[in-house]
Structures are given as structure tokens and as C-alpha cells.
Amino acid sequence: MTDPIVKISGLNKWYGEFHVLRDIDLAVNKGERIVICGPSGSGKSTLIRCINALEEFQEGEIVVDGIELGPNLKHVDAVRREVGMVFQSFNLFPHLTVLDNCTLAPIWVRNIPKKDAEATAMKFLERVKIPHQANKFPGQMSGGQQQRVAIARALTMNPKVMLFDEPTSALDPEMVKEVLDTMVDLAEEGMTMLVVTHEMGFAKEVANRVVFMDAGQIIEANTPKEFFAAPQHARTKLFLSQILR
Amino acid sequence: MTDIAASSFVRQDLVSERAAPVKTTGFVGFVRTRLLNSPTNILLTILGLLLVWYIVVPSIKFLLVDAVWSGNDRTACLAENAGRPVGACWPFIQAKSTQLFYGFYPEAERWRVNLTFALGAVLLLPLLIPRLPAKSVNAGLFFLAFPAVAFFLLHGGGIAGFGVSWVAGLLQLFADSISGAGEAVVGLSKTSAAGPALWAIGSAIVLVGTLLHWVIFPLTWLRDQMLASGQGPWPDFLITAVIVSVILFVLGGGARVGSRPLITCLATFAGIAAVIKLMGLDRGGLPIVDTRLWGGLLVTLVIAITGIVASLPIGVALALGRRSTIPLIRIFSITYIEFWRGVPLITVLFFATYMLPLFLPGNFTVDGLVRALIGVSLFTGAYQAENLRGGLAAVPRGQGEAASALGLSWWKTTSLIVLPQALRHVIPAIVNSFISLFKDTSLVSIVALFDLLGSLRASFADPVWTTPSTAFTGFAFTGIIYFIFCFGMSRYSLFVEHRLNAHRRN
């Protein structure tokens, strides 16, 4: 067994006096797909935002692919180069075309020549099935298309881990499927993924493990089969009874 | 007619397209729906027509119909000589045009002003037209090379040294002022109660100054050697070129990144050398024209363009500083912005002109025009900072987060993602400040600089041209000039706004 690609140990975080993350321990193996669910305010987003240091934390340690990220946030840049992130509100750069969105980071962070960066970007745009929209601006596209561009943009940096922060929550119901399909494709290619989502269908279909969080702590983690069929903790049972009708 | 009251309805035939009713489109439609569609609008239309009748018609009558177009002195513009009501006295403008454009700039040297403006226009126009290529070279020439060339063209004079000498001179000034401060403290110690303590502190400061002199001695020695060599600025130029190239080469990553930066650097120095040679800067350059002789539109444009170009970077730095998480930078930015916004521009100009010399070391003088330039730039910079802060606040936090998540550093996030969006949000406000700056340049006439308006008022004093319509003619003429520049900026800003906000059109 190789070392886990993401290893979170003893993670604690406070917003001022408010204890948002409590003693989080989580190890993610290479190629593993983890779905994190839980009620709003339970710290799911905060947890995955800690992994690429968008949030700082006060105690504990996160190791990504052997790079250590402690409370003093050394090696932030190195970690961020290994970790791709997709946001709930897409956060595409509205003043740049789709293609420029996808080539910006390779050019400015990895110093890749523009031509090569564009070729790579087109490859990923084809993979998310929107190569013909490459010269449009994000504002001219539907939410689902924008989110797929955001996924392509993250992939152009060749990340070892992908973080998804509620990628379908801001989408029309009709567009959720196209984004989820893209994510399923990505999973089938063996990408390590941490997904915060309320899409339980996706969790059942794709996840290796489902992690349930409440009040800043991990309450239960199990394979989707066990998790949905036989939840152990009372809080998990309550949560599942609320969302699965 | 379909029965839409029925609870179930299925359309059988689709409705085909028809032309709009005649009375709602075209000119007739416009008059009916926009001008005469309600009692209030009818009233407003009548008021509008009256406004045109009472303002536009008399203006045209004064400026064109009744105007006098030729003549040699005031007699041509007097009603009793012309035998009709007299409007604008254009011969006055013709006679005073050189003063209005150049001030007292010597006649033999006026080609230098014309050349400067021609150069500026040649460099600026392609910069303003998005389709033309080589924007970065063009911008470099306009923002870096042009100001230097313009200085030596307009002001004249040559250079004795180059980079090494300038750095040596600056460092020497710094060391001198430290020593001077130390000596002043030692001097104080003789009269003060805390004499020995002050003496010790003063001596320590003098010691620091002396040490600094020793540290920079190789530089000053090198400068003196080069000055003594009688080769003009050339040895210094060569040494500077070599030092800068080597530093660029090493810091830029050496041979790994290829020879491109090095070639660019050497080409830049070759260009500088060509300019030095061409303008004869190594042999004293053009005759010096003191800025006290400058005037008219020349001064207006020099102040406005310097202010516009300098205030934006100042504003950007301050706006970013005001949002910084480092308390010292934030407090400095806030203090700066609030100070300059709290003081009228006239006060700033007075202070810069009459009080600043009192604070500077004795042998250190700053030209009067430069003082006004600095004052105007710093003043407008504070306003630009606040304009930009609004733009920065309008960029969602997620933008910066997305850029960080992609691994972009703070500087790259700011310059590639945040600032471009912020600037797009506040183009109208920024150009608004530019226009207001352009018109505020007329305030420099109170600190004895003769801008366009100042020159005009000076020309009113000429008895040869005192007629009832001289003042109106003069103000109308300068008003038209101000309007052309301001309206041009306004239209161009609309164009830029439209173009840069292409992404917001769906």
C-alpha cells in the first residue's frame, strides 16, 4: 500500500472563537473518489478549502503528495500546483475568453509557451465537450457549460487531486446532468477526487467512500453501499431520512 | 378566435409575422411617441426648442455670422468701423495664437515644441487604435522613452553622465544629508540640557554618514574618473549598459530562458545611445529654454498629460495599499488619500510652489513647473485611488480565490485577474477624473505659470486689441479648445468601455 495522496491529521480550525473544524483525520488514496456530504454549515466546504490553503487553519497538518502544509502555510504554492479546484459559482474570469481562461495558469505559473498551452487547453475543452465555444466569453454560456469550462481549466494544470465545492448547486436541474457526466468521465480515468455535493445519486454511482460531516467533525465514513443501506450514527440516519424521500 | 377560457387548449395554426402599425415606427412614430405623447412631453419639447432658439442661434451668430475675420488691430473689430454689429474678433486670436500655444517660448526654438507634439501624436494614436500591432513596444516608447525625449526637446540641455553617475549622485546626497543631520544634532547639544546624550547621538549619526561615504566611495570615484576622462557620458553609458544587462541576465534565469531578454535589453540601450547621439545630448544638447518661458497650450498639455499618466499608477498603488492586510501600508494609504482629498488643489499648488523649497536642503532646487507637476499628480492620484477602490470592491472574492487555486501568486492574481476587471468597472470614473484634471490645470495660473487660460488673460492686457468683444472671443476660443480635448477623452472612454466590456454582452 502506497502512502495516501492527501493526508489530513488532527486538523482544527477556528473562525475567531467559533470552532468550525474539529479533529479532522482523513486519508485519501490515489485514485480514490470521496464524496463529502452533510447539512449546511457543517464545515464541508471549509475542509476542502483547507486542502489547497484557501482557508488557513490553526492546528494539525495536511500532506498533499508528500508536500507538507502546516498551520504556517509554507509550501502553499507547491500544494496549489498539485490540486485543482472547481467552485460552486464557477469563478471563471469573465474578462477572458474560454480559451484564455484555460491557458492563463499554464502560461503564467508553469511558464509553458502560449502555443503549447493552447493545444493542451483545446484537448481538455474537447474532453468536456465544448471545443467549439473556445472563443466565447464565459458570460455568453449557460451555467452548465461554464462549470465544464471550470473543470477543464483546473485540469490544464495537470493536478493530482481535484476538489469540487458543490459544483452543481448553482445550476438549473437540466444542466446538473452534463456536469455530473463530466465528473463521472473524470472519475473513470482514475482522477483522485474530493467532492462536496448533495447529489446522492452521484455518490452512489461514483464514490469509493462517503464522508458525512456535522458540526465541524466527521460523523461517519463508509462505502456508499453501507452508508446508504445501513447508516450507523443517529445523526446520519436523520440526515438521510431528510434528503432521501 | 380560440376559446382561451377553456381549460385545455392546443394551438393548431402558428401565428405568422406581420408588419408593425405604420404610426409607431419611423419619424412620424418618433415624434408621436417620444416628443408629443403626453402634456408634459409637449411642454418639454417646446422648452427644448426655445433653448435651441435662445442659445444655439445667438452663439452661431456671434461666432460665425457677425464675426470679423481679418484685420490688423482693434479698429477692425469695432462696430463703428465695421458698420454692423460685431461678433467674435478672430484677428485677435490670430495675432495672439503663438502666445496662446507656446507662451514666451523663443520663436527660433518653437519647432521643438511642434516636434514634441508631433512625436507624441505619432506614438499615441497607434496606441489608441486597438487593431494595430506591437502594443507593448508602442507603450514602452510612449510611456518611458517619450517623456525623456520630450524633456530634452522642450527643456534642452545635455547629460554629463549616465546610470552610474546618477546613482552615485543620489547616494552621495543621501549620505550628505545624514552627515548634515548628525552635525545639526551635535550643534544642538551645545545649548541643550541633555547635551552629552545629544552629542553622542549626533556623533553616531555623523559616523553613519561617514561610513556611508566610504561604502559608496568606489562609485563616486568611478564617476569622477569618468568625468575627468573627457569622453562625455559614453564610458558611464557603457558601464551602465553592461551592469544592467548582466543583472537582467542573472536575475532573469541566465541562459535557461534564452537570449531574448538580453537582446531586448541591449536593443533598448542601443536605442538610448542613438537618441543621445541624434539629439547631441553628449555635447550639451539643445539650448536650454527655461520653464518660466513656457506657456499656453504647451503648459496645459504638459501638466495634463503628466498628471494623467502619473496619477493612474499612483492611484493603483494606493488603492491596493488601502486594501492591504499589512497595517503600515494600509494606514499610510488611508492617510495619504484622506490628506490629499481633504485639501483643495489651489492649496496644494501654493504649498508646492512657495513652501516646498523651505523644506528641501539648501542646494536642492526644483523647477517651478516640476513642482506643479508633482502637486497635480499626487493630488489626482488620491482621487484615482478612490475610483479604483470602488472597482476593486466590485470584483467578487471568488475571482481572487480561483486565481490562487490555480497557483497564481498575489502579484499575478492582482495584475492579471483583479485589476483588469476593476479597471473595466471604473473607466467612466477614471476618465471623469482625467477630464476634471485637464480643466483644473488652469489653476496653475495662480502660481505664476501661464497655461492656456493664463496666457489668454495675459493677452487681454494688450491695448492694441482692446475691443468690447475681445474677452468673449478669447474665452470662446479657449473654451472650444478645452471642449475638443475633453469631449475627445469622453468619446474615447465610451469606445474603450464598449470594447472592454464585450464580455458583458450576451
From TrEMBL, chain A:
Coiled coil spans: none
Pfam families: ABC_tran (PF00005)
GO molecular function: ABC-type amino acid transporter activity; ATP binding; ATP hydrolysis activity
Domain ABC transporter, first and last residues per copy: 6-240
Transmembrane segment boundaries: none
InterPro entries in the cross-refs: AAA+_ATPase (IPR003593), ABC_ATPase_HisP-typ (IPR030679), ABC_transporter-like_ATP-bd (IPR003439), ABC_transporter-like_CS (IPR017871), MetN_ABC_transporter-like (IPR050086), P-loop_NTPase (IPR027417)
Alphabetically ordered keywords of this record: ATP-binding, Nucleotide-binding, Transport
Keyword Ribonucleoprotein belongs to the record: no
Gene3D superfamilies: P-loop containing nucleotide triphosphate hydrolases
Function statement: Involved in beta-(1-->2)glucan export. Transmembrane domains (TMD) form a pore in the inner membrane and the ATP-binding domain (NBD) is responsible for energy generation.
Similarity comment: family membership: Belongs to the ABC transporter superfamily.
Protein name, entry field: Amino acid ABC transporter ATP-binding protein
Organism per entry: Bradyrhizobium zhengyangense
TrEMBL record, chain B:
UniProt main location, coarse: membrane
Assigned keywords, A-Z: Cell membrane, Membrane, Transmembrane, Transmembrane helix, Transport
Species of origin: Bradyrhizobium zhengyangense
PROSITE patterns, per the entry: ABC_TM1
UniProt xrefs under CDD domains: TM_PBP2 (cd06261)
GO molecular function: transmembrane transporter activity
Gene3D superfamilies the record matches: MetI-like
PANTHER family for the chain: INNER MEMBRANE AMINO-ACID ABC TRANSPORTER PERMEASE PROTEIN YHDY, MEMBRANE COMPONENT OF AMINO ACID ABC TRANSPORTER
Pfam families from the UniProt entry: BPD_transp_1 (PF00528)
InterPro entries: AA_ABC_transptr_permease_3TM (IPR010065), ArtM/GltK/GlnP/TcyL/YhdX-like (IPR043429), MetI-like (IPR000515), MetI-like_sf (IPR035906)
GO biological process, one term: amino acid transport
Membrane topology: Multi-pass membrane protein
TM region(s), chain numbering: 42-64, 111-129, 141-160, 166-186, 198-217, 237-255, 262-281, 293-321, 342-360, 472-495
Name assigned to this protein: Amino acid ABC transporter permease
Localization per Swiss-Prot or TrEMBL: Cell inner membrane; Cell membrane
Family statement drawn from the similarity comment of this UniProt entry: Belongs to the binding-protein-dependent transport system permease family. HisMQ subfamily.
Domain ABC transmembrane type-1, residue spans: 297-493
NCBIfam families: HEQRo_perm_3TM
GO cellular component: ATP-binding cassette (ABC) transporter complex
